[in-house]
Amino acid sequence: MALDKLIHERVRLALVSALAVHDSLTFSELKALLETTDGNVSVHARKLEDAGYIACKKGFDGRIPRTEYRLTAAGRRALERYLGHMEALIRRVGGE
């Protein structure tokens, strides 16, 4: 059983999970949900974007820069695989 090490990191798992239940989230919304710093959101989102797990769209809301993220189909499949591995591990350890 091989866990997806990219998603296994705490902030990245939280980021992907948040995007799995929302159509999209802005940088500020993710930062507030994850209760982390700008740098953490930026670095971890970039790693997930490079892997094709999330997509990033930059634009403006009036004159204010706006960065919006959404989960890609590849990201959703990766999250589902990860959760399946974790469930199997929990069953194995729990003796089921």
Please provide a written account of the structure.
With 96 residues, the protein is of the alpha+beta class. Helix content is 60%, strand content 19%. A 3-stranded antiparallel β-sheet has the order 1-3-2. A hairpin with a 2-residue loop joins strand 2 and strand 3. Helix 2 crosses helix 4 and helix 3 packs across helix 4. The two termini are 17 Å apart. The mean pLDDT is 94.
Please outline what is shown here.
Helix content is 60%, strand content 19%. By secondary structure, the chain is an alpha+beta fold. Strand 2 and strand 3 (64-71) form a beta hairpin.
Q: Which features does this protein show?
A:
5 helices, alpha+beta, 96 residues, three-stranded antiparallel beta sheet
Topology:
Blueprint: H1 5-8, H2 10-20, E1 25-26, H3 27-34, H4 38-50, E2 54-61, E3 64-71, H5 73-94
Query: Would you report the number of β strands?
Result: 3
Percent range for β-strand residues: 15-25%
Number of helices: 5
Whole-angstrom Rg: 15 Å
Low-confidence stretches: none
SSE run: HHEHHEEH
Write out the strand line-up for the largest beta sheet, numbering strands in chain order.
Answer: 1-3-2
Structural class from helices and strands?
Answer: alpha+beta
Largest sheet: 3 strands, antiparallel
Anisotropy-based shape: elongated
> What is the mean pLDDT?
94
Helix fraction by DSSP (H/I, runs of at least 4) = 55-70%
Alpha-carbon distance between the termini?
A: 17 Å
